[in-house]
Design goal:
single chain; about 70 residues; alpha+beta; four-stranded mixed β-sheet; about 15% helix; elongated
């Protein structure tokens, strides 16, 4: 589970960006969203504050799990 916040200021794309605690791009002015187990939950909460939101491409990117195959 992660702590999520949303930037109170509109970004370049006209949307409010959602960040996790510890992000290098953490906003100065933000709204605390809460502790969530999924980014979808954080997105839904952020949309209750701002109609146009997006996930931070640095801290909220969904990285696929790597599976290594050893043919031995």
């Amino acid at each position: 589970m992660d702590l999520y916040y949303v930037n109170s200021e509109v970004g370049k794309a006209g949307k409010h960006e959602i960040h996790k605690v510890g992000c290098d791009h953490f906003p100065l002015i933000y709204v605390y969203l809460g502790l969530f187990s999924t980014q979808k939950e954080a997105m839904e909460r952020a949309q209750s504050y701002f109609p146009k939101v997006e996930l931070c491409p640095d801290c909220c990117v969904i990285r696929p799990k790597r599976v290594f195959f050893n043919p031995r």
